[in-house]
Amino acid sequence: MATARAPFVVDTGATDGDSDLSGRVTTDRSVYDVGDVVAIRDRVGNVASNATAQSVRVQTRVRDPEGDIVWAEDDEVAFIAPGAEQELTYSLPLGRAAPGGYRIELAVDDAEGSRAAEDVARFDVRSTSESGVGLVGDIQVEPDPVRRTEQLDLRAQLHNDGNALLEDLPAELLITDGETGEVLADWEFPGTDLGVDGQRVVTREWDAVTERSGSRFAALLRTTVADEPRPLAQAWFTVTDKLNVTVDRASRGRVLVMVDGPARAATDGECREADEIELGVAEPLALDPDDQVRVALYDEAGGLISARSATVSGFQSRWAERGEAGEILALTHLTRGRVHLALMNLAAENPQGTWRVEVEADGKQGIRRWDSGYFAVDCSGVPANGYGDLERVAAWAAGAADPHGPKDAPSLAHQRRHLEAALRSRGWSYHLAVSADDLERALGSGRFSAYALLHEHEKLPEALQHRLVEAVDAGSGLLVAGRHDQRNGQLDPALGIDFRGRLPHADGVEVDARGEFGGGTAGFLTSTKPLSARLAGAELAATFTGTHPGRGPGGGRGGARHGEEVAIAYHKPGTGVSGYMGFDVLAEATLAQGGFFDDVLLTGLEHIATARDKAGYGPSARMLTIRNLGEGTEGRLLLPAVPGVEVVDPGPGRITGEGGLDLRFDIAEKGTLAFPLWIAVDDHAPETVEATLRIATASGVMVDYTTVTIPLR
Q1: Is 32 left (phi over 0), alpha (psi -120 to 50) or beta?
Q2: Model confidence at 270, in pLDDT bands (50, 70, 90)?
Q3: Which run of H or E residues covers position 598?
Q4: What is the mean pLDDT of residues 557-571?
Q5: Distance between CA atoms of 594 and 611, rounded to whole angstroms?
Q6: Which residue from 60, 78, 80, 57 is spatially nearest to 69, judged by alpha carbons?
Q7: Sheet of strand 115-125, all strands in order from the earlier edge strand to the far edge
Q8: Does the reported pTM lie above 0.70?
Q9: If we measure between CA atoms, which residue out of 1, 35, 275 comes closest to residue 133?
Q10: Residue 534 half-sphere exposure, CB side, CA atoms within 13 Å?
Q11: Whether 415 contacts 262, CB under 8 Å
Q12: Mean pLDDT across the chain, nearest whole number?
């Protein structure tokens, strides 16, 4: 066997000076913004056809626009097979990288450290001033939800987290309706420079004036960069209702009350020998709750005779007390829409010449004054509108004693003042009649659904008594209290009682606690001799005490069971309702200045003054109820004049010159207000009428809140 040996060389295909290694570097994009991440890819290849490359070192460098290395990565590839390629990938977060051109350098060295391959790639980073990228925003709203018309606080922040100064950078806040796209509010803020890492805060308050409530409302923050609008932040919020408004038929009708004098002193638009004059500011008012109102009375020489003052929200009537004390001036009615005053005891004082009244309101609207000018004190020759800025509301002749006593009964003027003050304080709609003619006119006017006869002296014509009985049968209400004898006895069937005479020993009243008059006992303050009556269909509500000496309250055995000591009874003849009181409840209530007898009287009125629309008797009230779910505010209800519709009683509001209603109110936080709307209609009136409800926003601007539909039929 023979063996031979010879040397040989493996040719890799590379010529002198060439490398078997190749290198290439690329990026995923050529242009980047602040905050982007550059994806760098190195490809290192072995171009030899039959030799493995080992221990290949790969260097990657990134240089900023100034040529400084800002990122570097070194790697070693253990081996690369012939004809194969090895890929290396890197992520370069740019953060706030300076704007400009960047250079990526790739170097590949072989195992001996010789440079085998090189490559270069380039990319650009845009400036924030060009792209807007890096400018961020945040917006916060409070409270959420916010109630309509209440204040929403907005706080927005712009932060330059970019790579360049933003010169003259504007800001804009908007409120939009997310469902309709409507812009509800828009605030622009002037431009200002915002350096890198700089911040700017802008704030605004917005009264949430929207036509609806809902959850799709947005607060937006935006700006403009390089002439292009750029949204920065958005916050969704909810707007909820502030007021809950309902209109229902009230359970209380409008009542006409007949009293014994004093007679009205007005005739043919003038008045004569008045003992009392009630004046009111003629124009519709818009007082504030904290306004201080002062009324002053001056003589013809300009000397101050008397003055009274009160705040609108703190007013309490002292009309009856001041009149009884012999004083001349009293505030009788003070609301945001009305100022009334009374000149009293004129007959006793017998003043001469002329007087002047000045009304002054001092509050946040400044000082406002209304002046009557000088007028004749005796009221002669002065028409109702002859008092300058004021007008005459009523005038009454000299007061008289209670026509049938007893001697310790209060004067008729005092009784009337007490009655009106009590009715006004309880929100009643009423009219006082002092004669049978007044009562007869009212019965046919269609403006009343209930009648209270508190007079003793005047006998009603029998035909008028029969009409009252028919009215009760048909659905109206009737209260008779304090009559002297049987002169109006034709009313007895409607009252369900049988008149028997007088009770000499009665000394008080005991109300059955099980009935609707609520229970209680009180003694008489006058030396009255009440009426004796038996029940004739009516139900007993109260009995007299002390009717038989030695017997207990209610008369004991043989008393109330036979109806001889009936003090209060109620009856439901036909479809109506009636009440009977066998004593002078008004005189007792006036002497007591409220308390038990006031409650008895007003409960009796509540009992009979129910809605009677179905029977066609009078306008029942449409009760407007406003429930405030949010912060306290002031408001205004505006009912336009409509053909066939008449505002019979404006309540705390005012009847406008056109015949509509202007009702101003204040409602407390979480409070509830209820207003009776006394409206009479004829055959030409529509089925409904629409009123505008306006309220003040958080900044005090009056805006339309809702439309209130008031049924008229």
Answers
A1: beta
A2: low
A3: helix 596-608
A4: 65
A5: 26
A6: 60
A7: 31-32, 115-125, 100-109, 53-63, 69-80
A8: no
A9: 35
A10: 6
A11: no
A12: 86
Residue linked to tokens 């638009």: 269
For the chain, counts of helices (H) and of strands (E): 9, 46
CB neighbours of residue 341 within 10 Å: 27
In the chain, the N- to C-terminal Cα span, in Å, equals 136
Distance CA 126, CA 143 (A): 40
pLDDT in tens, 96-124: 999 999 999 999 999 999 999 999 999 99
Maximum alpha-carbon separation in the chain:
170
Asked if 371 contacts 279 with a C-beta cutoff of 8 angstroms, the reply is: no
Burial (0-12, 13-18, 19+ Cβ within 10 Å), 594: middle
pLDDT band at 306 (very low <50, low <70, confident <90, very high): very high
348: which residues sit within 8 A by CB, 6+ positions away?
275, 326
Ordered alpha helix ranges (H), 101-242: 128-131
d(CA 25, CA 94): 18
CB atoms < 10 A from the CB of 485, how many? 13
Reported as type and span, the H/E element at residue 107 is strand 100-109
Closest CA to 184 of 223, 158, 146: 146
- DSSP conformation class of 489: G
Q: CB atoms < 10 A from the CB of 89, how many?
A: 10
The C-alpha atoms of residue 650 and residue 676 are separated, in whole angstroms, by 9
Range 659-683 burial, b when 16+ CB lie within 10 A, else e: ebbbbbbbbeeeeeeebbbbbbbee
The pLDDT, as a whole number, for residue 561 is 39
Cα separation, 145 vs 152, whole angstroms: 9
Rounded Cα distance, 431 and 475, in Å: 20
Would you place residue 13 in the very low, low, confident or very high pLDDT band (cuts 50, 70, 90)?
low
142, 107 contact by CB (below 8 A): no
pLDDT in tens, 342-380: 998 887 767 778 899 999 999 988 999 999 999 888 777
Question: Using an 8 Å Cβ cutoff, are 316 and 432 in contact?
Answer: no
| 174 touches 156 (CB < 8 A) | no
Is residue 173 over pLDDT 80? yes
3-state secondary structure 413-453: HHHHHHHHHHHHHCCCCEEEECCHHHHHHHHCCCCCCEEEE
β partners of residue 87? 43
Give the integer Cα–Cα distance in Å for 2 and 311: 138
Average pLDDT value for residue range 487-513 = 88
pLDDT score, position 16: 46
Tokens found for residue 709: 């539909």
Q: Which residues pair with 45 in a beta bridge?
A: 22, 85
Contact 577, 585 (CB under 8 A): no
Tokens 């916010």 correspond to what residue? Answer: 146
Residues 6+ apart with CB under 8 A from 703: 149, 207, 209, 694, 695, 696, 697
Q: Domains plus CATH for the chain?
A: 21-126 (2.60.40.10), 130-241 (2.60.40.10), 251-261+400-618 (3.40.50.880), 267-399 (2.60.40), 619-711 (2.60.40.10)
**Does residue 206 come out as left (phi exceeding 0), alpha (psi in the -120 to 50 range) or beta?**
beta
**In the predicted structure, residue 153 carries a pLDDT above the cut 50:** yes
**3-class SS letters over 648-672:** EECCCCEECCCCCEEEEEEECCCCE
- Would the pLDDT of 247 be above 80? yes
Please provide residue 224's backbone torsions phi and psi, each rounded to the nearest 5 degrees. Answer: -130, 125
Identity of the amino acid at 273: E
